[in-house]
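Summary of Year 1 activities. Much of the first year was spent building the evaluation harness for sequence design. The harness presents a backbone, in tokenized form, and records the residue chosen at every position. We chose the following record to illustrate the format because it has been used consistently in internal testing since the harness was completed.
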């Protein structure tokens, strides 16, 4: 497992994809999980965004 962390717009996704290809590892992205939760639940307000952001972080 390789964990990539950093500030917004620091290149985490780009680095993750490169590492995934090089080492043949899956990428588990918090933002993608959060979007799936939003789409499943169908709610997009700020309060839910904070809750789902925390939940998606816990899942990763």
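For this record, the design step produced the sequence shown next.
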């Amino acid at each position: 497992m390789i964990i990539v962390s950093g500030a917004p717009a620091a290149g985490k996704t780009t680095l993750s994809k490169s590492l995934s290809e090089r080492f043949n590892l899956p990428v588990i992205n918090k933002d993608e999980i959060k979007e799936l939760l939003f789409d499943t639940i169908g709610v997009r307000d700020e309060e839910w965004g904070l809750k789902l952001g925390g939940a998606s972080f816990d899942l990763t």
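The mean pLDDT is 83. Quantitative recovery figures across the full test set are reported in Table 2.
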